[in-house]
Amino acid sequence: MYKLAIYSFIAIATSTSFVFLPSPPKSYYHSLFISDSLSDNSSIANHLFILTKRPHVAGSEANAEAAAYVLLILTSYNIKSHVTSYDVALTYPVSRSLILTPSSSEKPIEFGLSQEIYENDPYADVANEVLPTFHAYARSGTANGPVVYANYGRVEDYATLREMGVNVSYTVVLARYGKIYRGDIVHNAYAAGAIGVLIFTDKDYGGAKWFPDDKWMPPSGVQVGSVYDGTGDPTTPGWPSTGECERLSNEEVDDSGNVPLIPSLPISSADGDAIIRSIGGKEANVDWQGGKDSPIYRVGPGPAIVNLSYEGQQVIRTIQNVIGVIEGEEEPDRFVILGNHRDAWTFGAVDPNSGTAALLEIVQRLEKLQKRGWRPRRTIVLCNWDAEEYGLIGSTEWVEENREMLASRVVAYLNVDCAVQAKNFRASATPQLDELIIQVAQQVKDPDNSTQTIYQSWLGSSNDTTVKLGRLGGAGSDYAAFVQHIGVPTLDLSFGDGYPVYHSMYDDFVWMKKFGDPMFHRHVAVASVWGLLALRLADDEVLPFNYLTYAYELQKSAEQLEAEISENGISLVPLYASIEKLRKAAIKIEDDVKLKILDEVIAQFNSNS
Questions:
Q1: Which of 72, 319, 367, 378 is exposed most, by the fewest CB atoms within 10 A?
Q2: pLDDT above 60 (res 4)
Q3: CB 347 within 8 A of CB 55
Q4: Which H/E stretch holds residue 531?
Q5: 206 lies in a domain?
């Protein structure tokens, strides 16, 4: 009886000790998150395969099915999730034609304007679901006139044409993709007096072989995309497209300056080459020429005449943002947001569903952490946006609808669009996140060289003593509303910075499996970096921001501005004074944080003594 009592006491004491054992530190869960035991490249590959079975442009049935899949995965991993819908103005092609008359003595050539199905294409049976090649929000109309070649269609390119004595008025401009946004190409052509624009993928952007035999764009491949210069629904600028909301008329949208006023079409390198060969006039500058085996590029105008015709249709369609929430235990009203868009111009294996697959991998890992007892200090919000390709519409509408709440509660927004395009890690951020990105990159293995961290490879690729971190200007992806509307710390990251089959029907799972990331290890690495950044921001007691970096960046920008306006008699003394105040405040915060950490270490030491 005595022994039984002793054994019972030991059993109770032992079980009680387990009950009252302290939880592992957050750093334990962070290390576990990036460990091989939690990562799953086969799961990522499966997500991507399912998401890219069909073309899924915004507003389509296929994209609604993709949204349902994302929602299913979130809920299956016990993430509280919902769909937020908006009714927005989207455009689709109705008819297009392009006819080239090389000269008065030659017969007209009518282009097919189609992307060819490749041999043994596993998606041939759904290729008819790919929209005809077009520019979203392009002006409907017909343009008939001589062709002028305008290089990349930049402002400086038109200055060069003027210097060469070339009059662009009443011509159809032929410009090649690259250097600037396609919407700006159309805008600049209109400003120069053109009546229409053709934008082609120059064939020097490739090799002797192309997809599916190599990674390069096939001759019939076309980069489609939007030519809208704004963000969000063009008919509801500044307010969300919900219910029976007020909308701008077509005339008011035209007057906004954000939509083109002349028709345009994207065309393939093969069609662009045929037009280039029919242009006469002066020989273009060396840096305007094509690559090996290209003809001599001339600027025109003519003798080639093109007839460009485009008719589009604007309709109100429902788009769906899928939102998942893991509520924070201690600061539930502070949000760390991860975002990626789902809609694609075609199959979207790189853009954007490599990012979607990585997001779902993060969800899977977070669920495993929760099973082991982890709970975030702050709330983590997982967002899968819709209609990004048209003009960052899903994310912008959501921010417009929740602006005041988000501005006061968001800790940071972490964006991934194309998770994997090629080798080499890249990141862009608002400056207070620079140090955190570097710290995280030092913890994750490089997927292409397991003997190094991502940081070490990143540093090596920069050929410098510091890594190259970009900044988030413009409206390149869904980070725009968070930076420009509510001004929160934001970053964007990926592997690679561009890929040959961008926005074409060849951006499919086959391309990714053969050329983008055959083993899906880069996808795993993106999920590790992206997720660990979120965990640090959600769990660190003191937010890991470094505003000294911000002050340094502002100082550098102010000095550049001063050099540009030095002859205008404008003083930047007040600006420099403000930057100095920020620098001193940042130093004080850093010192206070160090003191707090020291106090905690001493207290922990005393409690263990």
A1: 72
A2: no
A3: yes
A4: helix 521-539
A5: yes
Question: How many residues can be counted in the chain?
Answer: 609
pLDDT in tens, 152-169: 999 999 999 999 999 999
- Which pLDDT score, from 0 to 100, does residue 464 have? 76
Tokens linked to 296? 């001599």
What's the whole-number mean pLDDT along residues 52-74? 98
**Contact indicator for 490, 430 with CB cutoff of 8 Å:** yes
Domain residues for 436? 30-82+331-465+479-539
CB 335 within 8 A of CB 411: yes
C-alpha 210/C-alpha 349 separation (Å) is 17
Q: Report pLDDT digits (tens) over 545-580.
A: 999 999 999 999 999 999 999 888 899 999 999 999
Q: For tokens 């979203």, what's the residue?
A: 136
SS3 111: coil
Bigger pLDDT: 603 vs 417? 417
Give the 3-state DSSP-derived string for 372-436, with helices as H, strands as E and coil as C: CCCCCCEEEEEEEECCHHHHCHHHHHHHHHCHHHHHHHEEEEEECCCCECCCCEEEEECHHHHHH
Sign of CA pseudo-dihedral 295, 299, 302, 306: positive
Residue 172 pairs with which residues in a beta bridge? 147, 196
The span from the CA of 438 to the CA of 349, in Å, is 28
Verify that 261 and 306 share a domain, yes or no: yes
CA dist., res. 337 & res. 544, Å (int): 15
Please, what's the largest Cα pairwise distance for the chain?
Answer: 115
153 domain residue, yes or no: yes
Q: Residue 155 forms beta bridges with which residues?
A: none
Burial class (CB in 10 A: 0-12, 13-18, 19+), 124: exposed
Contacts with 21 (C-beta within 8 Å, 6 or more apart), sequence order: none
Q: pLDDT digits over 12-47, tens only?
A: 333 333 344 567 999 999 999 999 999 999 999 999
**What are 117's two structure tokens?**
């199905």
Per-residue pLDDT tens for 75-96?
999 999 999 999 999 999 999 9
The Cα 423–Cα 409 span in angstroms is 35
Question: Residue 555 is inside which H or E element, if any?
Answer: helix 547-564
Give the C-alpha separation, 254 to 234, whole Å. 10
Gap between the Cα atoms of 168 and 190, Å rounded: 9
Taking alpha carbons only, the member of 307, 288, 337, 291 closest to residue 492 is: 337
| CA distances for 45 relative to 36, 140, 290, 355, 583, angstroms | 16, 40, 37, 12, 45
- CATH number of the domain that 298 lies in? 3.50.30.30
DSSP string, 452-511: EEHHHHHHHHHTSSS--EE---TTSSTTHHHHHTS---EEEEEESS--TTTTSTT-SHHH
Q: How far apart are CA 584 and CA 576, in angstroms?
A: 12
pLDDT digits (tens, 9 = 90+) for 352-400: 999 999 999 999 999 999 999 999 999 999 999 999 999 999 999 999 9
Catalytic residue IDs: 388
Whether residue 108 is found in the same domain as residue 175: yes
